Each structure stands twice: as structure tokens, then as C-alpha cells.
TrEMBL record:
The lineage of its organism: Eukaryota, Viridiplantae, Streptophyta, Embryophyta, Tracheophyta. It comes from Prunus dulcis. InterPro entries: DUF7788 (IPR056690), UCP015417_vWA (IPR011205). This is DUF7788 domain-containing protein. Residues 15-173 form the DUF7788 domain.
């Protein structure tokens, strides 16, 4: 299914995961595993220079090259052992992505399309910024425009994974269980089926 979603539908191409594997997650092992698994999946589906990379949830985000070759267990442990903080500096996150694009002299179509933040925190409590997201995002857009990437500022999807958080994990039409199910059953091999209600 993953290969089909990627190769035929072009989904998840040049997505980048920000994985929260903070110690606070340890009381919610399922959320921790989802964060790591989705981070690994997206890192495998991206193209260079993003392939095999994730960012840790931190005030000082860094792009990590996942070590371990083809050994999935080793990759899992590598991501699990990343040092994370309690907050994420969104502006620094976008600055880091922009810096990679500039350093690699990437064309706009090679830019990260979406940043998937996987955390046990909700969006408002996760931010390390003292200013509002709207103000930060305007500054981010200005920086991208200045470097020639104004039309391709990555979209951010913030997914709160904690089972203890009553908030909805994602906005409508973003990546969630319903969307993934719809994506899977929209495959042409299922088109001959009839839904009876």
C-alpha cells in the first residue's frame, strides 16, 4: 500500500517529520511509537536531500540523518534516542528547512511540501515563541520570499498524538485515520465495489 500511495498517487513526496520523543511520552507508549513510525515512513518516502531525515522536537531543531541502513529496529532506536525539548520553535524549524534548501541550491519543486509535527502536546502549548503564530508565519513567509522560495513555503500539519488530549488531532482534510482510510480505498482495485447503506 505504501509503495502504491507513493508511486501512483504521489502522496507524501517531500514531507518532513518533526518527531517528539520527549520523556513525557513514556507514559503513552502508543503515541511514542506512532511518532517514530510516521517519522520513519515519511523519511523513506521523501527525495534527496530530505530522504532519510527527521527533525527532533526542540527549541533548537536539527535535521538528523537516520542511521541504520536497512535495519528497521536500529532506525527506530536512533529516532527514539534523539534529544527533544518540551517546546518547539516553529520559526527556527522553518529557518532550518530554508537553510537546507539554500545550501543545497534546491529548485522550488524540491522544497519540502509539508512538515508533519508529531507531538504529545497541542499546538498552542508546544510553541516556544513569545509571539503569535500569525506574526511568526509572516516573518517565515518574508524569509522564504527573500531567498526565492516565496511560492513554496511548506505547510505545517500539527498532529497531537496523546490519548490524554481531548483536542482533535488534525484539521479536516489533513492526514488522520479517516483520510488514510479514504486514500487506501480510493485505489482503483476497489472501484468496482458498491457501498450499501
Amino acid at each position: 500500500m505504501v509503495e502504491d500511495v507513493y508511486s501512483k498517487q504521489g502522496k507524501f513526496k517531500n514531507w518532513l517529520a518533526v518527531c517528539d520523543v520527549h520523556l513525557k511520552f513514556m507514559d503513552d507508549e502508543d503515541s511514542l511509537e506512532v511518532s517514530i513510525a510516521l517519522g520513519l515512513l515519511l523519511s523513506e518516502l521523501s527525495e534527496e536531500p530530505w530522504k532519510g531525515k527527521v527533525i527532533q522536537f526542540s527549541c533548537e531543531p536539527q535535521l538528523h540523518s537516520i542511521q541504520g541502513g536497512d535495519d528497521l529496529r536500529y532506525k527506530y532506536e536512533f529516532v527514539r534516542r534523539m534529544t527533544c525539548g518540551v517546546d518547539l520553535d516553529f520559526e527556527k524549524l522553518f529557518d532550518l528547512i530554508l537553510q537546507v534548501a539554500v545550501n543545497e541550491n534546491l529548485k522550488p519543486d524540491q522544497m519540502i511540501k509539508k512538515v508533519l509535527v508529531l507531538s504529545h502536546r497541542d499546538f498552542d502549548s508546544a510553541s516556544a515563541a513569545e509571539t503569535s503564530w500569525e506574526i511568526d508565519y509572516q516573518a517565515i513567509q518574508g524569509k522564504y520570499k527573500e531567498k526565492g522560495y516565496g511560492d513554496v513555503v511548506p505547510h505545517m500539519v500539527f498532529w497531537t498524538l496523546s490519548k490524554y488530549n481531548p483536542e482533535k488531532p488534525v484539521a479536516p482534510r489533513e492526514i488522520g485515520p479517516d483520510y488514510l482510510m479514504e486514500l487506501a480505498i480510493s485505489d482503483e482495485r476497489y472501484q468496482a465495489l458498491t457501498v450499501v447503506d
